[in-house]
Structure formats: structure tokens, C-alpha cells
Write a structure and sequence with these properties.
Length: 329
């Protein structure tokens, strides 16, 4: 039996070939609870296997001084919990390489932020030319495949520079990082620079995700009902939501309607789609690729991005599992 694990900064994902599980764990806030959380996982999930394939992005969390420390911390934790000498870690080499634990510890930067490689390598088995658009809770990976070769750069820094990694996602992104203004009743209105709301609020208000699909926390730590999301979005323009009768003029000037909030949400949605689409178009033009494939938590944006849902159920951890089945290890 094999198990694949993707250790993200916000979510830990596990796949054993049959069952996919995802657990929210904000490592940057709970580093000192990582081991106890892993122990809890062993109680919730059967992690007994003959071989483990690991990938990660959590090493970038700012609870670590650098990625070397992050990779080492994560792998030491897994080593202690899994009690196995058959733990392999995905390299960010796009030719798809799995390093044993000792080599991964020795060369930590070679396994940092490598999960996109699994997705790209798996799809490249079936698609000779494609642009993979993988929109997650926090980021969007845009991965070009040309003539069966993965053309993406290998580090986050290089992918940022080349427009292959866009720091925008459908759950955790602070709205001001999408736009510092909104179009409100025909005027450009600057928004607050506070962290009052995120994209999860936008897509809840617009009915595109459910409470269960919002797997991360809210900006204020409160609930994920529509009205709570509206309150957070209204706060970005320093207002409250009008939820009943208004008796005072000063109160009226500090409140906006639910319809107004919905319009603000639509504005941020449109701006985020424009950001992703511009990046996709640049890579399409650069590599002359027209086959858009979308996966990830943001796959519901497929129509807006003119992308196919052909691999809609695929994720990095599933791709990693399927690829290991081809290896004799």
C-alpha cells in the first residue's frame, strides 16, 4: 500500500488511492502543535503503508527562518510519526524525481514547493500541449506543457518572475491584494488597507462555494454564513450592512445595502479573473498553446477562464500517488 501526502501551509492532504482527505492546519500559527496534529491524524486516518510519497509547500511559512529550516522541520516530523524507511520526497525537477529522506534533508531546496510538478507530470502523460490552471485557496499555478515537456520554472521565485505563479486564490486572498479600489455607484472608491475580508467571502456571497467548501478560516475568525460574509466585505469600505430599519441620518451614511455588497463582491471576482486571465494569455502567446485545463478549489471559474474541466478531480496529491504507481520503489 502507498500513501501520498501534500503538506501545505494551510492544508494537509492525504490520498491512498481510494480516499482523499484534507485537513486545515495553519502551520505558520501553530508550528509548536505540528507534531500533536500529526499524531491526531494517525488516530483519524489509517496511515500505515509500505511506502510514502511526500510533497510540500509549507516550508515557506514565516514561522521558519528559511526554507531549509522549514523542509527539515516538516520531514523530521513525518519521519517520527510514520516510522518508515520508505519515505520519498518529490523534487522540483520537472523530470519527476523522488528523493529518499536523507537526500531530501541534504538538499532541502530541491524539494521545496514541488507539488506543481506532480500535477504537470501526470497531465503531460495525456496532453502534449496544455496550460494547466490550478487555482487553490491561496495561489494560482499556471503550468505550460509544450510537446510533452513541462516548461515551468522550478522555484517559486522564478515562477513569480515569469508569471507562472500568481498569488491569488479563491479562499484566503486579502481583497486589497486584488484591487485597492472598487467601482461603487459609478465612482472609484478606495478601500481600507486592513485585513477585513478575503476571497472566501466573495465567493460565498455570490453563491459559488458552500460553507463546507470554505476549508480555511475567515478574516475575523467568525462564521461563514452569507450575512457574516457581507458584513466583512462591507467593512472593507468602512461600512456596515443595512440589516433593518435605519432611524438616524448618521447611521444611514455608514451603511450600505446587501445589494451594494453583492456588487462589491462581483467587482472583486471580476478583477481576480482578469488577473489570472492576463497571466494565462501571456503564457499562451509565449508558448503558442491554446488548450486550457483547470483544476483546484477554483475550478468553478472554468467558464470565465474558457478552460476545460477534463481533469477536474485531479489534485497534486492524487497526481503524486498515481505517478508513484508507475515506479518500482
Amino acid at each position: 500500500m502507498k500513501i501520498a501526502m501534500d503538506i501545505g501551509g494551510a492544508n494537509i492532504k492525504i490520498f491512498d488511492g481510494n480516499e482523499y482527505k484534507q485537513y486545515y492546519f495553519p502551520l505558520w500559527k501553530k508550528k509548536n502543535k505540528f507534531m500533536s496534529f500529526l499524531w491526531q491524524l494517525t488516530e483519524k486516518t489509517d496511515l500505515n503503508a509500505d511506502m510514502y510519497a511526500i510533497t510540500m509547500t509549507a516550508e515557506l511559512c514565516d514561522c521558519f527562518k528559511d526554507r531549509r529550516e522549514g523542509v527539515t522541520f516538516i520531514l523530521n516530523g513525518l519521519k517520527e510519526i510514520l516510522h518508515s524507511n520508505r519515505i520519498f520526497v518529490l523534487s522540483n525537477d520537472t523530470n519527476f524525481k523522488l528523493l529518499d529522506l536523507d537526500d531530501a534533508m541534504k538538499f532541502p531546496y530541491s524539494v521545496a514547493s514541488a507539488n506543481f510538478v506532480a500535477t504537470a507530470r501526470y497531465i503531460s502523460k495525456f496532453e502534449k500541449n496544455a496550460l494547466i490552471i490550478d487555482i487553490g485557496s491561496t495561489t494560482a499555478d499556471i503550468i505550460p506543457i509544450k510537446d510533452g515537456k513541462i516548461l515551468a520554472h522550478t522555484t517559486d521565485f522564478e515562477r513569480l518572475k515569469n508569471g507562472e505563479l500568481i498569488y491569488t486564490g479563491v479562499l484566503r486572498t486579502n481583497l486589497i491584494s486584488i484591487s485597492n479600489k472598487v467601482k461603487f455607484k459609478g465612482k472609484n472608491l478606495k478601500i481600507s488597507a486592513e485585513y477585513f475580508a478575503n476571497t472566501g467571502d466573495v465567493y460565498r456571497v455570490l453563491g459559488e462555494i458552500s460553507e463546507n467548501e470554505w476549508t480555511t478560516e475567515t478574516a475575523d475568525g467568525k462564521g461563514k454564513s452569507i450575512i457574516e460574509c457581507m458584513r466583512r466585505i462591507a467593512r472593507t469600505v468602512c461600512c456596515d450592512v443595512s440589516e433593518g430599519e435605519i432611524y438616524e441620518t448618521s447611521e444611514r451614511k455608514s451603511k450600505i445595502s446587501k445589494a451594494d455588497v453583492t456588487q462589491i463582491a462581483k467587482y472583486f471576482r471580476d478583477e481576480q479573473i482578469k488577473t489570472i486571465n492576463r497571466a494565462v494569455e501571456r503564457l499562451e502567446k509565449k508558448y503558442r498553446i491554446k488548450n486550457r485545463l483547470i483544476i483546484g478549489a477554483g475550478k468553478f471559474l472554468y467558464d470565465d477562464l474558457n478552460a476545460s474541466l477534463k481533469y477536474e478531480d485531479l489534485s497534486a496529491v492524487k497526481a503524486l500517488y498515481f505517478l508513484t504507481m508507475d515506479l518500482q520503489i
